[in-house]
């Protein structure tokens, strides 16, 4: 039963037959990679996931990370796994050869991270966050920081974190009050950070915190925030290390993802916590956004992985569980007949199809964002880099949000397939249900992502990003129209695009008038609208590739495989795309209910 | 902080100013009751809830019911609470005076059960199930059964259960295989029952199981199921009691509602389990449906209670938590300003309004079903009784489903208001989130309810029930049209009614052709459509009553109170009713995706 948590075939289909992986391989940076090396990597990570991740998934929930006597106790597999992923070069994978990495395309880094997250969404976070922290030091740190921290993070000996949130500053980072006081080559750091994932755990050799703080006299708001490297133990010349006054004072017991510790840290209780400035003073949030954007894609990826794992578990159950009989013509049931498997009931099929649509579509969304990242970083043409950077910027809040929000519904459908068993601890669905709920909170809530999407990404550079996206979508439409079976769906998507143009023009009109309250009031509804539209495009795109391959001699999969993708596209257009006009209606509605200032009086 | 889990004002508003409580009081059976006695009861149950329910809510989750050495250990408050609710006459409340009850209208029984379920959704189930089991014995049991069990169930000395599910027979009750062999005045029972709520617990004096089993030679399917009273201890003449070979062999550890035990029972391991037939042989499912229908309303009520409690908790948090600043005209934020309370952010307002709409609307739905029950049972005019019976039948699957399904989303919104804190065990939202998930599974899943709604209730007697419902809705529309402010919403609801007529005619057309597979394939989507429509009606109805009262000298509440109801109606029409045309589009779509027989091959 080891193979029931993921879908390697669909991963390969998206990578090699849908996504345009070739465009990535054609970049100079990735010249050494090809499909075969990618397949080898996928297989070895699947093997790692079978052995080191999936078997520990349930017990990490049952014996969660917890605070005891000044330490965070985690499952012993945490240390094992981090070491293994370091050994296999997975943490170093995206970095350049000269830095000890594999120079692996981000799209492949994402692909193999996703496999691991399907298997166990707790463990890969430890090394993923370390990779992202190392990337930040690599890009913006000076040689001292790079030499001191970077190599040992890539091996997994030391792990990394991002320290942003404070008790009064969660969604509102401008209110950070942790301080940094200049003192020779470093700063003295003082302050508390809460909700710090992987912030400390017993047995870790060192933890490298990337921390936001304010240098004395800095301007108010986000323009006065600087970024520091703050290790738990500061390396001294000669190889010794001194405790750096980074104290763990508690943890958060979460409803789910209980194997991944969430900590409360206090810096500088003894006034001996040293931090080293990354880059220029007061530019910290700009740097941190590199890590945050990476983390946002990773959040969407994790949610996509959980949705997939839940989908596979409920599909397996539906194929094995007999219950009831199908309704026959005339409305009767023949009780003399044997019970049917529940996969034969239309409502169970609906729930399974929904999960398939959300989990596979979300995977494509995540991989597409990663491909855009590769092209935005390494394309030889600066204009192309700019285009893909815009596309990545536009898709980032959607990639963070769609798999998290719809993934919850998807996993809930998976639980429902199990009936009462799904609600019981003997079955895994309840764990997926609890785990996935954090993803719409992590790294900027859905509300924050929606403000980013509508308030920044849609409007930036006069709509350049949306324009580039339309270009991509139109390319899919042109291919779709060659297939009679797909043509009606292409028309439906065109209609949705027109509706989007209408809505966007209507809403941005308020911004042009300076009426930002009205412009952004229903940003979350816009996110649902736009996210659904993007997902409709991705499904049509998968259906197009499937239709092309079905009639080709070059296909790698069975006709049934391709047919199931076309079917799922049809499902998505029937059950999800139909919501768009209603959402548009809501967005156009001028009723001020969610903006009334006196709502708190009325409640 | 004791008052943050419920909303007594809104309860009173619905009961006394919206629902037409007077019509219930006018029934002969309820001649002794009036508004004042109802208010006294509400106050005393609120007091009970403050003292005996809410304080134990969290600890019942943290130290859940569990199986140990052949017994189920529950929180000590279970026994305390059942005794208290017996003492106060709450279990006996709906029964006639001659039976030791208060002859209380069901609408009031529901109202005070809801208060308790807001406070603690675990405890009231024990006595609620006892009440429903007693009611079944009262209606269909012979004098021997009535005299032996009924009185001690009303005092709470003995509790009751319903034993339906078996390992192979959950949604499919026709597959029940527990057997009953005639033996003198009783039957010998043999079989296993799973997922039995309140099935056994240490310290219970006796537990009276209402159990479905097959008498030898009975016809196959649901027409061969009989109903038995099977006590854990069988009373002997002279007052002694003998163990009746009812064995608890395990329990189910659930994700939520962990204070309410769910057990696995084995009957007749020693061939000494006696059961007494209720009513006629092979008629058991018909009798049991009385209890199931009652339980379905109770499930919706419980979900409505959790949604309300979560709504109140997140509202309180939103009024106390500062974070960020509102977007100003021009799109900027002034970071020099103090942070605002999060209730002032539009997206938080949206989430709070959503919760208000769902939780208050669900309460009205539950109370309305209960009112229909009262009128269907005790109206002097048989035609009226028939009308209300149809209305009750139609609303039952919706009352079971809407609060459960939308309540989940509502509670999830409440959790999101808390941000990361909502996901942590220090805060209560995560418990509500876990607890409410069971309600769409209990007593027939959402899929089963949807088949009941579309396949039976909509079509029965040539659409008589839907026709009666239209009559009720039209009465609201006529009143709404007198208020200029409400007129556009009345028009919108009319449009939705027309759409419903179109959809229903379209779908039932397939039934008339004998094509039941097509007719019922998207029953769950129809449930969402019809449930939303009904909720839109209920909100318009509340807005009408509010508008009438606002300009009246007889109003009991402040203008702000009434204004908030009108506002919430507008919210519901803007954000929820707009989904109807899209759902209709899905229902009209002839794509066969959810019916393909080979879907399991394709997956």
From TrEMBL, chains A, B:
Gene3D superfamilies: Acyl-CoA dehydrogenase/oxidase, N-terminal domain, Butyryl-CoA Dehydrogenase, subunit A, domain 2, Butyryl-CoA Dehydrogenase, subunit A, domain 3. Residues 162-268 form the Acyl-CoA oxidase/dehydrogenase middle domain. Residues 470-596 form the Acetyl-CoA dehydrogenase-like C-terminal domain. The keyword Zinc does not apply. Residues 339-451 form the Acyl-CoA dehydrogenase/oxidase C-terminal domain. GO terms for molecular function: flavin adenine dinucleotide binding; oxidoreductase activity, acting on the CH-CH group of donors. Pfam families: Acyl-CoA_dh_1, Acyl-CoA_dh_C, Acyl-CoA_dh_M, Acyl-CoA_dh_N. Residues 36-157 form the Acyl-CoA dehydrogenase/oxidase N-terminal domain. Signal peptide: none annotated. Its cofactor is FAD. Belongs to the acyl-CoA dehydrogenase family. PANTHER family: ACYL-COA DEHYDROGENASE, ACYL-COA DEHYDROGENASE-RELATED. This is Acyl-CoA dehydrogenase.
């Amino acid at each position: 039963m080891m193979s029931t948590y993921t879908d390697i075939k669909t991963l390969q289909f998206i990578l090699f037959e849908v996504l345009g992986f070739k465009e990535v391989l054609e970049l100079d940076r990735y010249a050494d990679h090809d499909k075969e090396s990618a397949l080898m990597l996928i297989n070895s990570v699947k093997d790692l996931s079978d052995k080191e991740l999936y078997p520990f998934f349930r017990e990490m929930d049952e014996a969660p990370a917890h605070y005891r006597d000044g330490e965070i106790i985690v499952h012993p597999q945490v240390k094992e796994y981090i070491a293994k992923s370091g050994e296999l070069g997975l943490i170093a994978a995206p970095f350049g050869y000269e830095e000890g990495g594999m120079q692996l395309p981000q799209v492949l880094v994402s692909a193999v991270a996703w496999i691991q997250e399907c298997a166990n969404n707790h463990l890969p976070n430890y090394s993923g966050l370390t990779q992202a922290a190392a990337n930040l030091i690599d890009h913006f740190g000076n040689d001292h920081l790079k030499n001191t921290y970077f190599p040992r993070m890539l091996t997994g000996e030391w792990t990394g974190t991002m320290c942003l949130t404070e008790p009064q500053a969660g969604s509102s980072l401008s209110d950070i009050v942790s301080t940094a006081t200049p003192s020779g080559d470093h700063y003295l750091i003082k302050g508390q950070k809460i909700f710090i994932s992987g912030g400390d755990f017993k047995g870790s050799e060192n933890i490298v915190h990337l921390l936001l703080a304010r240098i004395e006299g800095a301007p108010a708001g986000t323009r006065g925030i600087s970024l520091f490297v703050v290790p738990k133990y500061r390396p001294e010349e000669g190889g010794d290390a001194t405790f750096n006054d980074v104290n763990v004072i508690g943890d958060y017991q979460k409803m789910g993802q209980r194997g991944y510790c969430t900590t409360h840290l206090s810096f500088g209780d003894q006034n001996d916590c040293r931090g080293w400035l990354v880059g220029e003073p007061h530019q910290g949030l700009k740097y941190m956004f590199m890590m945050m954007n990476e983390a946002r894609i990773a959040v969407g990826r994790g949610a996509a992985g959980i949705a997939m794992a839940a989908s596979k578990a409920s599909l397996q159950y539906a194929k094995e569980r007999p219950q009831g009989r199908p309704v026959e013509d005339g409305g009767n049931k023949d009780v003399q007949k044997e019970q049917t498997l529940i996969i034969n009931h239309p409502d169970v099929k609906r729930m399974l199809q929904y999960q398939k649509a959300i989990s596979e579509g979300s995977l494509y969304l995540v991989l597409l964002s990663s491909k855009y990242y590769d092209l935005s970083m390494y394309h030889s043409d600066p204009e192309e880099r700019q285009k893909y950077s815009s596309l990545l910027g536009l898709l980032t809040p959607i990639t963070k949000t769609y798999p998290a929000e719809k993934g919850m519904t998807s996993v809930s459908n998976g639980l429902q397939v199990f009936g009462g068993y799904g609600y019981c601890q003997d079955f895994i669905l309840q764990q997926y249900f609890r785990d996935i709920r954090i993803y719409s909170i992590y790294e900027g809530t859905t509300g924050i992502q929606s403000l980013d999407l509508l308030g920044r990404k849609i409007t930036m550079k006069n709509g350049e990003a949306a324009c580039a996206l339309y270009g991509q979508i139109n390319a899919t439409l042109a291919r779709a129209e060659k297939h009679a079976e797909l043509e009606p769906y292409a028309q439906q998507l065109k209609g949705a695009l027109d509706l989007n143009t209408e809505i966007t023009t209507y809403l941005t009109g308020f911004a042009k008038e300076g009426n930002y309250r009205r412009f952004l009031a229903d940003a979350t509804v816009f996110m649902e609208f736009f996210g659904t539209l993007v997902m409709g495009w991705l499904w049509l795109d998968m259906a197009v590739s499937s239709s092309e391959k079905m009639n080709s001699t070059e296909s790698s999969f069975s006709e049934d495989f391709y047919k199931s993708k076309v079917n799922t596209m049809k499902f998505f257009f029937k059950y999800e795309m139909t919501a768009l006009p209603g959402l548009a209606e809501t967005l156009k509605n001028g009723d001020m209910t969610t903006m009334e200032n006196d709502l708190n009086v009325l409640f």
